[in-house]
Amino acid sequence: MIAPPAELPAPGRVGWADHDLLEVAMGPHHPSTHGVFRMNVVLDGESVAKLTPIFGFLHRNHEKIAERNSYLAAIPYTDRLDYICSMTNNWAYVLTVEKLAGLPVPDRAEYIRVIVGEFTRLFNHACMAGFLLQDMGALGTPLMYAFREREKILDLFEALSGSRMMCNYLRFGGVRCDLPGGWREQAAGVAAAFHPFLDQFEALLSENEILRARTQGVGVLPPALAVNAGVTGPGLRASGVNYDIRKVDQYGIYNRFKFRVPLGARGGDVFDRYMVRILEMRESLAILEQALRDIPEGVFLDPKAKLRNLRPKAGEAYGRIEAPKGELGFYLISDGGPAPYRYRIRPPSLVNLTVLEDMCLGHAIADVVIILGSIDIVLGEVDR
Amino acid sequence: MLGRGILRGLIETGRNFCGSYYDPARLTTVQYPEEKLPPQENARTLPFLVYDGQDPLAGLRCTACTICEQECPAHCIRIVKDTVKKPDYLGKMQFHPKVFDIDAMVCMSCGVCVEVCPFDSIKMDRVFELAQDRRALVLHKMNLAKSNQYYREIHPTEAAAVDAARDEEQRKARAKKAAAPAILTP
């Protein structure tokens, strides 16, 4: 049953066309739903009275496949969770397996992980801003600028791992191969060239009056609701909650880097979520600079690490990292066999999506599109 | 002033528009298929089987151990062992594959087979123009076999390391054989 807004007459009772509620299915073939995502929106005029997200169109049985295959064979599948950020997906999984099996990671591998992880964050946030602007009607321009920069980072990833998007690069106890010759200098060049790009991006967007009018005060997410709903990542920090797993858990070697955690200043509207990501990119660049400068020589893979026949002792582990979209966690139960007994993912996109209705109620339908864009979801991760 | 942000943005767009005509860093379009980007050394698309010598089927390094078949995440490899053993490069008697099929439509180019192969037999290719008008993307042993020379061409660094390691093993095996007491040899 649809509950109509209190001040309006009940639908069907009064024959006024402008007070009837209208149910609209947005998606799954809607260009602004970022994939195959469907929203059943109940409209009162142009404003949203109720919103039901419907997903599962991209379900690929990832968790069950991983329980059938060996520990190693699940890594290429994690690439396909959030298919924009394959490196951080790998990272969360190998971190959990390392916790489960108690494997050490050499220093150099930790640095390489931080470097590829922060590069991933850079282009994820740049693309998210591009897609958000595309949803607002700035067709193409900001998105293409973001893709231009992403291209350079993908070239780096290809030289490193052999593939642009499905990197399959991290391994239990390190990474798959060492940095190729000249990679570090090239990466430092790309990172240095990202600063002027960000300046350009901000000149293009941050002060734009149309962008501000469309985003400020729209889709406010109160901090209390964000915490209660389990929202993580830039969406939570935009609401002013200081929670970054890189600072809280300090997994890997994040305690060695100096960086700040940007917070939203306006109470968590769409503009805050945009701005937090722009500021986070600057912090990522600071981390990259330090990591590329300090990376030590040494082995990239623990010599005792096993690729095949990994059989961790019976037990359970939950590992989590600050993926670009929020807290990406893996929960593994081992029964001592060659495959995990239970393999469970906590995807940031899905959990962040749960507050969509609360943010959209009362806003115009055109705002629903940008509120969804500001959450930054990837359907590969929502549906798995 | 209202509109200042928009103007700043438009200046930025204009600068980018003009730059796309003369700035070499911005002239990135490659006229595929007439022009192609140079391939990356690490690039991987589909697996292939390495053979030594001249004859593709006789020189296959693969010993049909089926490790790749078991480890393949997508289960796209099918191997049937031959019944007779043949000597490998160290002189050991080994089985060889009677059937070695890779379903290229299922393969997800992850490279796990390459990592787990203990015989340096399966490697990643970098071909990508695979479209065809027949249903011939289940690759058989004779389609998969490619020479060590080809492997050296596409992945020079990696191939050099593999060749060096194999030569070393071969040298050790010969030395061992030579050092073995004559009384034990039949």
Mean pLDDT of chain B: 84
From the N-terminal CA to the C-terminal CA of chain B, the straight-line distance is: 99 Å
Order of helices and strands of chain A: EEEHHHHHEEHHHHHHEEEHHHH
Shape, per Cα inertia axes of chain B = elongated
How would you describe this structure to a colleague?
The complex is a heterodimer of chains A (384) and B (186). Chain A has 384 residues and is an alpha+beta fold. Chain A contains 15 helices and eight strands. In chain A, a hairpin with a 2-residue loop joins strand 4 (170-171) and strand 5. Chain B is an alpha+beta fold and 186 residues long. Chain B has one domain (47-177): Alpha-Beta Plaits (2-Layer Sandwich), CATH 3.30.70.3270. Chain B has helices spanning 4-22, 67-71, 112-116, 141-144, 148-154, 156-179; strands at 47-51, 77-81, 86-87, 93-94, 97-103, 122-124, 138-139, 145-147. Chain A binds chain B through residues 65, 69-70, 72-77, 79, 141, 145, 148, 151, 155, 158-163, 166, 168, 176-177, 180, 200, 203-212, 307-308, and chain B through 2-6, 8-9, 11-13, 16, 28, 40-44, 67, 70-73, 108-112, 115-116, 124, 157.
Q: What topology does this entry show?
A:
The complex is a heterodimer of chains A (384) and B (186).
Chain A: E1 21-26, E2 38-44, E3 47-54, H1 62-68, H2 75-79, H3 86-101, H4 107-136, H5 141-161, E4 170-171, E5 174-175, H6 183-205, H7 209-215, H8 223-229, H9 234-238, H10 245-248, H11 270-294, E6 315-323, E7 326-334, E8 342-346, H12 348-353, H13 356-360, H14 365-375, H15 379-383
Antiparallel strand pairs in A: 1-2, 2-3, 4-5, 6-7, 7-8
Helix pairs in contact in A: 3-4, 4-5, 4-11, 4-14, 5-6, 6-11
Chain B: H1 4-22, E1 47-51, H2 67-71, E2 77-81, E3 86-87, E4 93-94, E5 97-103, H3 112-116, E6 122-124, E7 138-139, H4 141-144, E8 145-147, H5 148-154, H6 156-179
Parallel strand pairs in B: 1-8
Antiparallel strand pairs in B: 1-6, 2-5, 3-4, 5-7
Question: How would you summarize what this structure contains?
Answer:
Helices cover 46% and strands 12% of the residues of chain A.
